[in-house]
Amino acid sequence: MQLRPEHVELTAQRQSLRLIETVRSARGERNSVDTCMVTLAHGGLVAYGEGTPTGYDGVSADDVVDAVRAEGPAVIGDDLSDPERVLDRVERWDAPAGARMALDGALHDWIGKAAGLPTWKLWGAPRRLGPTVYTIGIADPDEAAAAVRHAPAVGAFKVKVGGSDDLATLEAIRKVTTRTVRVDANEAWDLATARALTPRLRRLGIQMIEQPFPTDALDDYHRYREFPDRLPVFLDEGCTDAASVLAAQAYADGVVVKLCKAGGIRGARRVMEAARQAGLEAMLSCMCESELAISQVAQLAPWADHIDLDGHLYLRDVPFRGLGLEEGWIVLGDAPGLGVVPTR
């Protein structure tokens, strides 16, 4: 007689995470973020995954939760004896990327727990990753300089730009730190702004710029590429998955890889592989997320050219613990699976 596989229990809920302070970017300001937390129980093991909406594609955390609740159990099935096949189904699932990210994360957590090993050790990867960055939101020069002085010990800073005091703010930041500085415009600049600021940004030692122009302003990207001594351009909103990498090759120097865009660890790894084949650099990044989501994406950090994983450092509410930060480097948890545990 063939025994029926043990049932897989899957639950999903929306969770609001309060931030330690208001975060401002060219897209607006926020004091909290909503995310989807998934729990997967099977074989006496309880695993966790987090899925985050990007916030600019019209998909909400409720949409992510609804997709997981409605279709997640069928996608996962009742047999995890071959988890790679289950991950294949999750990757092919026609659902919001945040929903795929949540299930993908929970499955990777479960695989590590079933093996009794942290995911990084299961993959033969290093535990210390970095250096990582800390993001400074749009602020006046004095506020930005103070934020840098009081920031965690990181290896670099990313500064949100698109406000009226961009140059003055960056000059104030440069006065209080010699560390690497990047800027992120979130589509707020036009070509004239970029041309006017680039020589001054070069003198300030700015390393690169993320998404300077709107995603559909392709002519601006191509024309800026011809600008003498331009800044390297990395696409975030303009490059979401592996299929969009090929087009980026013509007008960018790198792509920003996020699990919430690519649909989880599997999808993000494909974006990174596509970027390498296209001759583009890959910057691994995140949203404001808990240590669970950051642990999911951090597993890929050894294969990234740049690491921008600081989303958990802005949270007042901490639903998971396990990540460390030492001298600007992220230290993955040593618990089986993704290495983090619930705080309650």
UniProtKB/TrEMBL annotation:
<feature type="domain" description="Mandelate racemase/muconate lactonizing enzyme C-terminal">
    <location>
        <begin position="141"/>
        <end position="228"/>
    </location>
</feature>
<dbReference type="InterPro" id="IPR029017">
    <property type="entry name" value="Enolase-like_N"/>
</dbReference>
<keyword id="KW-0413">Isomerase</keyword>
<dbReference type="InterPro" id="IPR036849">
    <property type="entry name" value="Enolase-like_C_sf"/>
</dbReference>
<dbReference type="InterPro" id="IPR018110">
    <property type="entry name" value="Mandel_Rmase/mucon_lact_enz_CS"/>
</dbReference>
<dbReference type="InterPro" id="IPR029065">
    <property type="entry name" value="Enolase_C-like"/>
</dbReference>
<dbReference type="InterPro" id="IPR013342">
    <property type="entry name" value="Mandelate_racemase_C"/>
</dbReference>
<protein>
    <submittedName>
        <fullName>Enolase C-terminal domain-like protein</fullName>
    </submittedName>
</protein>
<dbReference type="Pfam" id="PF02746">
    <property type="entry name" value="MR_MLE_N"/>
</dbReference>
<comment type="similarity">
    <text>Belongs to the mandelate racemase/muconate lactonizing enzyme family.</text>
</comment>
<dbReference type="InterPro" id="IPR013341">
    <property type="entry name" value="Mandelate_racemase_N_dom"/>
</dbReference>
<keyword id="KW-0479">Metal-binding</keyword>
<dbReference type="Pfam" id="PF13378">
    <property type="entry name" value="MR_MLE_C"/>
</dbReference>
